[in-house]
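FORM 7B: Structural annotation worksheet

SECTION A. Query
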Amino acid sequence: MKTKIQEIHTNSITKMTKKCLQIAVLLLLSFTSIQAQDKKAKDLLNEVTSKIKSYDNIVIDFKYSLNNAKENINQDSKGNVTMKGNQYVLNFMGVTKIFDGQKTYTINPEDEEVTVSKVNEKDDNAITPSKMLTFFNSGYKYNMDIVQNVKGRKIQYIKLAPTNSKDQRKEILLGIDVQTKHIYNLIETGKNGTKTTLTVNSFKTNQPLSKNQFTFVASKYPKYYINKLD
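SECTION B. Predicted structure
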């Protein structure tokens, strides 16, 4: 029988990937269509959007933490994501995800398997920029929260609270560097006491990328089983 922590490690890669991509989408998508409950929060989000839209591409190294004191669970993982437009390459927990704008390729070295799936806008579990935009456009109230000094950086937090009482998330805190207008971290607190934190360790822009950066090359994985879901 698996232990509690083993079950979480085995079943949480997809959920963690979604959280990691939340910050990617928040960086890439416009907040101008969101009806703000707090004008200052809206103005700050718009500044973030304007700054990010000026970049051709973004490369982020991040730390992901999962904590639940009641269950005595503390997990830390590192990863990185490269983004250009709606394309991305995400490396996290030993798994690589490539999205070329139409299909997602999930490369799992441990199982020697590549899972290929098309993006389905009607799938509630699909990780797409438009889904994330819808996610933050509806079902959330937000306003300015606390300001913290983190190693000399002034971080302004914006709190997002779900309006659906059935939502298992209590709140989300989005930390923004006031000077650079870059997102510093994303903190999600669940009603069960679980807290997940994604912190940006390195933020690079306009990097020299290969023309095949977001292309899956099957010849690199000759022994892998290609699992086409569509």
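SECTION C. Observations
Residues 29-36, 124-137 have pLDDT under 50 and may be disordered. The radius of gyration is 18 Å.

SECTION D. Sign-off
Analyst initials: ____
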